[in-house]
Structure formats: structure tokens, C-alpha cells
Amino acid sequence: DIWGDSEQNIRQRIAPDGTITDVKIGPVYLNGVTVREANARLRNTFARIYSTMEGENPTTYIKLSLGEIRSIRINVMGEVLMPGSYTLPSLATLFHALYSAGGVNDIGSLRCINICRGGKEIANVDIYEYLLKGKSSLDIRLMDGDVIIVSPYQNLVSLSGKIKRPLIYEMKNPETIENLLSYAGGFTGDAYKKSIRVIRKSGREYKIYNVNAADFSKFILIDGDEVSIDAMLNRFENRVEIKGAVYRAGSYALGDDLTSLKQLIEKSEGIKGDAFMNRAVLYREKPDLTTELIAIDLSGLLEGKIADMPLCKNDVFYIPSIFDLKEQYNVSISGAVRSPGTYGYVDNLTIEDLILQAGGLRESASTVKIDIARRIKNPTSMTVGTLLSENYTLTLKDGLIVDGKKDFTLQPFDEVFVRNSPGYKAQRSVAIEGEVLFNGQFVLSEKGERLSDLIKKAGGLTAGAYVVGARLTRRMNADEMRRVETLLKLAQTSGRD
Asked: How far, in Å, are 42, 417, 488 from residue 47 at the CA level?
């Protein structure tokens, strides 16, 4: 197709001699060239009669396209799933032919594929070069009558362990461990890289090789080899660790600037204020991998009264906190507060503070009787006492302790009981329905009220009331329900009504 200053459409079939013929320019040979090369050849040829087709700013353009693609006959032989003859488009390549034949079979080689043309070998293709390195030049364009021969594999080597692509690889003669590692993408980050284990079938027995890194490029692999790569050891060659009451606990590198306990404490930015200074502990791994404990006087170490101790790899230095050496202190509160429960103890904790943490008093709380039970603690005692606890009773008024103990503070594990006031009564109601003047709920005024009092509150009976047939329904409490259930069980087991 020619367009621009001049327009022309040429449709021709390539003659058996490989040419097309135009009346103005004569024959042009195009057989065996690519579309791009044919397009360039036609541009150079037509430029003799179209002067505006060349130059820096051409105004006449040309483009070639294929209207019909001829077919070619290809023979695929050897170790493929479906060997035979295949009809393919003339633009087909080696990989198209292998795909049409179903690919290589179990013993087929990907490293040695021969292409023969006219009885001569024109190429020997290694597909690994295409798959692993992307060499597209290996995908050779085929011609009519080409023969593709897939040979059996030479060597199959299995690769496992700490490698990026653990697979079975086909190796040529003579290829080495270094070639295998490049095919597999190299080691993973946790691989042991100094030595590789190879298990080889010697024909009679298995034989093992430990190949050092310096020999990777020399050790030639053969068919049936099993190559495995181990992981590095799960241990550190220069680690020391500090734990406990320091500002930056963790692991540190043992080296020139870190060789002793004092330097380790400095690396962790010093000890905290809650550190227990009388005793710290150093855990050290002995040559037989057992652990020994070394007690350290921390205050003497920091003040220079005892010699600084050198560190060894895998040492763990623990500085306890004073809070780690005592129980977790708490106090409890129960009774007429909004959130009864257990709360953490702090110094100078008062009754008012604890009541505030518990959400305040309930409306039913008594402020004249708050009981505190305190543990008996005497760590130096040599006898068993008779006292079980120390008990205190306090009175609250406007948030203050008013019985002469305004400075009363709680101790760890105190139990506080806020009693319900005896002068607090919630309303209790009963219901009356039927032939009375006023049906509904009525609140009891005092203990000991009778049915007759309830009827008076309801305005008395109507003229149609049948008093003898009146019925009182009362909900059983838990004890009454248990008694009824026991009687029912007895009746079922004895068979009596």
C-alpha cells in the first residue's frame, strides 16, 4: 500500500521463483526475508520512481503486509509425546513445533534439540538458555521439510534444600555444581554455603561427597546425582544478651568495643531505678552446652569494688527488678459500690481513693460502717498465733474518715467491705386484680401487712365479689423450689402419688 503524495495498491502472489513483478519497476525478489526486510527492500526499490519516499521529511509512504500465509510441513522425531509430521504456518518456529508435538516426554532432553534442513544439521538448541536467560534468538524459524530431533536426556540431577528453585535439572557433559546453582537461582539467605552434599550412585552402592565452595566449579555432575544444601546452624557466633531492669534490653555483638559486663551495661544505656542492686545473674554456656549460673554483686561491679568480668559468646546477663522479686500487690473491695473487685495497690492508698476506683458508693451504702480486714504478717515469727486478721471499722463523712483515723491508709491485700445501710429499703409491691374498686400495683407500707389491708388500699370489694373463691399466687423462693423438686423425684422413684 502506497499513500501520501501518490496512492497505489498492489496485490500480488509471490511467484515460485520468489519474486513479485511491477510494470514500472520490474521483478523484486522477496523469498526468505522477513516482513521488515521486505518492506525496506520495496521502499528502496520504489524510491526510484517516487522521489518523495526518501529524505528527511518523506511525504510518500509504503507498507507491506501478508494477505495469505503459506503452510509448511515439519517432521518432529525423537523423545516427544506425539512424534510425526505437522502442517504449520510458514512463520512457525521451533517452539511452535514442539508445542504441536505435545512437548518432550519423560526421557526427552531440553538441552539437546537438533534441527536438520536438507540433510544437514543447522542448529542445536538448548532450551535452558531460552527459559533461564531469555535468549529469543534460539527460537529458530522453520522452513518446509525441516526435521526436529529430540534426543534422550544425558544427566538428571535432583537439587533440594536451601536453594531458590529446588527441582530436578538436566545437565550436559561436562557441567558442574556451579552451573547447577546458576540454573537454580542461587542459595537462599539461610543456606550453609561453604559445603554441599552430593549422593552418587556408584553402580553398586551409594557414595557421598562433601564438596567445598572452592570446588563448585570443578566437581562434574553425572546422571542420578542427588545434591542437597543444608541450613546454617541455629546459633550465634558473637551474641551476648542483657535482660531485666535496663533501658535497652536485647542482644548485642561481642567484639572489640564490647568485651565485659560493664561495657554491656553501658551499651544498654544503663540500669533503671528499680534495679535490684545486691544480686544479678549471668548465665554462661559451657563447652558441653550445659549452662552454669554466676552470681554478680551489681552495686560492687558498678562501684569498682569487684573486678569487671569478661564476656563469652551466648552469655545472658539478667538484672532483676525489685518489682520482679515481690508479689503483685492488690486490694479488694466488695459490697455496696458500683464496681466491686480487685484493684492494684499503690503507696498511700486510702479508703476514699479505693471507693473512687470502684465507681463510688451505691445509694444503699452505709457510711457509718465500712469494715477492713488486714492480713497478719510477721516474717520473723517462730510460733503459730491465734489471730486470723486485723479488723477495722471506719465511718465516712463528706469523703473523710471521721472516727479519729483521718491518716488511715490501706496495706497490700486489704479487703474492704461496704455494708448496705439498714435504713435503706427498696419499694416492694403487690398486685390485686378482679372485683375490687382499684386494680393494679400497690406498694407495701410496712412489714406484716395483711390481705385485708391490701383490699382497703384497693377501695374495698365490689358487690359482685366472690370472696370464698379468691386466689393468692406467690412465687416460690429457691429453697421451696428445691423441696418441690425433691418431692417429685421421690414420688417417681417410689411409685407413690
From this structure: 8, 111, 118
Alpha-carbon dihedral 168, 171, 177, 179, rounded to 10 degrees:
-110
> What is the spatial distance between Cα 323 and Cα 335, in angstroms, rounded to a whole number?
31
Q: How confident is the model at residue 432 (pLDDT cuts 50, 70, 90)?
A: very high
Cα–Cα–Cα angle for 334, 337, 338, nearest 5°?
120
pLDDT in tens, 453-462: 999 999 999 9
**242-269 burial, b for 16+ CB within 10 Å, e for fewer?**
bbbbbeeeeebebeeeebebebbbebbe
Of 21, 68, 80, 69, nearest to 45 by C-alpha is: 21
CA distance 161 to 187: 9
Which residues, 6+ apart, have CB-to-CB distance to 320 below 8 Å? 244, 245, 275, 276, 279, 280, 281
Q: Cα–Cα distance between 59 and 39 in angstroms, integer?
A: 17
Return the beta strands (E) in 49-167 as ranges: 60-62, 71-78, 84-89, 108-117, 120-125, 147-152, 155-161
**Number of other residues whose CB lies within 10 A of the CB of residue 211:** 16
pLDDT tens across 160-174, in order?
A: 999 999 999 999 989
For residue 494, name the pLDDT band (cuts at 50, 70, 90): confident
| 74-102 tens-digit pLDDT | 999 999 999 999 999 888 889 899 999 99
Side-chain-facing half-sphere of 223: CA atoms under 13 Å? 8
pLDDT at position 120, please? 92
Q: How many CB atoms lie within 10 A of CB 138?
A: 19
pLDDT tens for residues 351-396? 888 998 999 899 999 888 889 999 988 888 888 878 888 898 888 8
Q: Cell for 6?
A: 501518490
Indicate yes or no: pTM above 0.90: no
| Cα dihedral sign, 121-122-127-128 | positive
Which secondary-structure segment (H or E) carries 447? Answer: none
